[in-house]
Amino acid sequence: MRDVIATEQAPKAIGPYSQAIRANGFLFLSGQIAFDPASGYLVEGGASQQTERVMENLKAVLEAAGSSMENVVKTTVFLKSMDDFKRMNDIYGRYFPENPPARSTVEVARLPRDVRVEIDVIALA
């Protein structure tokens, strides 16, 4: 059994994917980039500002599914440049002050809309 999760509090899917899927007690969240759902525009600024928006988008999808950041078990962080690692990590760490989830962080050649940060999540439902 699987359920599609969608919320207006995070950017709408712009392709053939869902914001999240609930299956077998887990939530699988699609990667979020720094779109502001209220304005529909990318957040201005660098990796810090983009990471903040990404984390808020992820938080909104988790809450729409009845979960929270405390239930996140794994994240994958995609960075346009590892030079942004510290800036991303400083913001990211504020969302997981205790018992942070497992994480992979990779540098990629290009991200949608040429953003600096994209993050996806697996959480307990």
Question: Could you characterize what this model shows?
Answer:
With 125 residues, the chain is an alpha+beta fold. It is 23% helix and 30% strand. The protein is built from two helices and six strands; from the N terminus they run E-E-E-H-E-H-E-E. Strands 1-2-3-6-4-5 form a six-stranded mixed sheet, with helices on one face. The longest helix has 18 residues, at 47-64. The protein is globular, with a radius of gyration of 14 Å. The protein starts with a strand and ends with a strand. The model has no long low-confidence stretch (mean pLDDT 97).
By DSSP, the count of extended strands is 6
Mean pLDDT: 97
| Biggest sheet architecture | 6 strands, mixed
Rg calc: 14 Å
Give me the side-by-side strand order of the main sheet.
1-2-3-6-4-5
Contiguous low-pLDDT stretches (5 residues minimum) are: none
Structural class: alpha+beta
Distance between the amino and carboxyl termini: 13 Å
Percent helix, as a range, is: 10-25%
Shape descriptor reads globular
% residues in beta strands: 25-35%
Number of helices: 2
Helix and strand run:
EEEHEHEE
List keywords for this structure.
125 residues; 6 strands; globular
Gist of the model:
Helix content is about 25%, strand content about 30%.
Give the helices and strands, then pairings.
Blueprint: E1 2-5, E2 20-23, E3 26-32, H1 47-64, E4 72-79, H2 85-95, E5 102-107, E6 117-124
Parallel strand pairs: 4-5
Antiparallel strand pairs: 1-2, 2-3, 3-6, 4-6
